[in-house]
Amino acid sequence: MKIEDYSLNISDHQFKVKGYWLDQVDDFGRTVDYPVVVICPGGGFTFHSEREEEPLALRFSSFAMHVVVLEYNLIGKNPVYPTALEEMAKTVDWLSKLPESMHIDKSKIILAGFSAGGHLVAAYNGIATNPTLRKKYQIDRYNGQHAAIILGYPVTDMTVKGSFPDDDKILQQISLDKSLWKTQDLLNKNSKPAFIWLTRTDELVNVTNSLTYADKMAQLGIPVELHMYGSGIHGLALATYVTKKPGKNKYLNQRAAGWIDLVMSWLEMMDLVL
């Protein structure tokens, strides 16, 4: 495996991505083009959780997938959006233009978002598949398209009371554009299939987020699979010792740790694995 850092350019600044590239295997007797997962970690739009970066990247890599971690725009002098959308569009465009020597199956670009990163992926799934919205948010200049999305305990509706962000000031720092607050309203019949997982007892992001998003997809006839585990805290990541915070066993959840195997089974069903 090769691990490389990159700086990509959009209209007004640079942002970083990290690639985890699988090597070719001589024993296969031929070259192989692998699917690629773009990970958007959580962190409440104030930081990028490292627990949802390399540990997840290595796990996905073990299933024969390239991985790219996107360090998307955070709360700062300007709102997170629409810049984060352009960063995602640029990342997909960049992947679609990489040389054949990178051995990427460009028809199998999968976006995976966790917590706040899930909001970016959920929003992009509606905007990038709608020509009018692509133009509105100025991402129509970018090429490439994703094939599916994975959402882990995602923020999809920022207007749900008692759920993140539940603070008007923070909400404005994330986006001044109210049409981005409810990602389910951005979905259309061309949006891509989704796998969603969460825990019923999530103390930070109300389950209404995932349920509403999945329901809208079902109404539109878009393939969606949703798994809600009966218990577990927010931010489980892999829910194993790899992503457990020291001394905090609440980050271990044997049942929820099975989510990634279910994801891979779903991707196989959707013909999106090797």
TrEMBL record:
<dbReference type="InterPro" id="IPR049492">
    <property type="entry name" value="BD-FAE-like_dom"/>
</dbReference>
<dbReference type="InterPro" id="IPR050300">
    <property type="entry name" value="GDXG_lipolytic_enzyme"/>
</dbReference>
<feature type="domain" description="BD-FAE-like">
    <location>
        <begin position="31"/>
        <end position="216"/>
    </location>
</feature>
<dbReference type="Pfam" id="PF20434">
    <property type="entry name" value="BD-FAE"/>
</dbReference>
<keyword id="KW-0378">Hydrolase</keyword>
<dbReference type="GO" id="GO:0016787">
    <property type="term" value="F:hydrolase activity"/>
</dbReference>
<dbReference type="InterPro" id="IPR029058">
    <property type="entry name" value="AB_hydrolase_fold"/>
</dbReference>
<protein>
    <submittedName>
        <fullName>Alpha/beta hydrolase</fullName>
    </submittedName>
</protein>
